[in-house]
Specification:
heterodimer, A: 376 residues, mainly alpha, MetI-like fold, 3 domains, B: 261 residues, 6-stranded mixed β-sheet, 4-stranded antiparallel β-sheet, 10 strands, 42% helix
Chain lengths: 376, 261
Amino acid sequence: MSDITLNASAKVAEAAPRSAPISQVGFVGWMRANLFSGWLSTAVTLLLAYMIVRWAIGFVDWAFINAVWSVPNNQTQACRDLRGTGACWAVITEKHRFILFGTYPYEEHWRPALCIALFVGLYIVSAMRRFWRKELALIWVGVLTLIGVLMWGGVLGMPYVPQERWGGLVITLILATFGLALAFPLAILVALGRRSKLPAIKALCVLYVELIRGVPLISLLFMASVMFPLFLPEGMNIDKLLRAQLAIILFAGAYLAEVVRGGLQSLSKGQYEAADALGLSYWQKTGFIILPQALRLVIPPLVNTFIGFFKDTSLVLIIGIFDLLTAGKTAIIEPAWQGFGIEVYLTVGAIYFIFCFAMSKYSQGLEAELNRHRAR
Amino acid sequence: MSETLDHIASAARTDAPPAILLDKVNKWYGALHVLRDVSLNVALGERVVVCGPSGSGKSTMIRCINRLETHQEGTIKVNGIELSDDLKALDDIRREVGMVFQSFNLFPHLTILENCTLAPIWVRRMPKKEAEELAMHYLTRVRIPEQAKKYPGQLSGGQQQRVAIARALCMKPKIMLFDEPTSALDPEMIKEVLDTMVGLAETGMTMICVTHEMGFARQVADRVVFMDRGEIVEIGEPNHLFENPQTERLKTFLSQILRGH
């Protein structure tokens, strides 16, 4: 009896498929659902659209139409006349070299410029998966050494430039790249150490993470810059930048270690047991089974920390190192250029944004690609 | 060379050393006494099924054999090598003992083929090409060679468990341990895994299998071990054990199993 009913209803359902009504799908459907779903939502949409358009027109007027792009010989009067109605990009035209390279000798600017290009090239090559081989580590060592040689000079006919004269974007890239490149392996070792069965190693790793996490980065930088030299023997001096770099590596290492540990903990015990049962050694198990899975899982918080530290390098200004932000700030100390902070900070902000946004977008792509195996 | 000779020699002798020997093994989890004086000999080529209610220590026992768990008292010898804190001995034992888990434990980020070749390449130092041929051989034997390029997550539970068996076999173990290999599977997939295991038994592999599949036990087991509360309560030939249970505990267990099926 029930069989007959079922058969009958199955027949009725066999109508020709047709597409959903036009008002429910595509762009129109999306607008209806999200922007104009009721009178209140329509009113809010229109009001916000009006405000956005007005603000955008105002910004375009200020930043492009009324802007001054260059002035002769620091004659900033033309800029001052336009205060509030037009941007004075002349300050960037005039000071861009200072913002990018700090007080590095003018004739030698090609060296930090080349370093910036090398850094960007290194990022791009490292981002491409087809270069993910053992040789990549050698490329990193090679390029980073080359950058050191270029910056210091003193060989191959390049005059020696003391670290005190380095500055600008190149300092930010040095601190961030060396910092994260060395902090990341350190973090992996510490995270593994915290899960070690050997009590001494475990205690050491816990102590490191808790001590470093317990103090602000600023105080660590102060210690590196003021206190650390007191413990050194007379006459011995370690470069200030190097000390700040060490502080950043230690600090980032502690934070990244906790991120990596989160990934390690999310793996099931079965993965460890299966690797053990197959006879893999500890490092084989860690390198082939555990870390590849754990690191994939923590890409979002990992990149979050990377981006955070890229920007936190600006804290070195308190110990007198000229990074990108400090260089920008110093560029407008000169009386002729005082008062053009908005233009300079917008530019500096845009540079930070380009790097951070690139990291963010890249990590999204990487996450999708590396976690393909989880899609069915 | 000498290994082959040893193999032939030990197979020829009737008093050959057992593949696995457990002598008065005791283990505690904190205050909980999970293995009590467990003694068991498994001869080369013998197939043993271990059954018992949950929490009876049967999984713990076979996990002690390749030291995923450590025992605190007694002796365990595998192929004549004693399990101890000696890591070298442990490596030797794990190479000879394959294990299949209830929850498959395939490596989800590696393809089926990579799952099978990883250990032969890195533990046995086999050339990659040879390892891949070997893997395809065993994947064919468990009847899923066409899935080699897929990831574990794209396979059904039964297929995954068959891959896990192939992965263990790629290490050419002398002994296979099965820890409830069909308990996590949907009923329609149990048969395909059991068929694979029956096929393996026919090759003369030494097997210890924790399972509640009584049909499988009757078909392949030389002996059935019944465990309860950390003790081995009865050991015997399957038909004899199931038809004439000597103890009340086994009677109760069998009646519960039959009701469940």
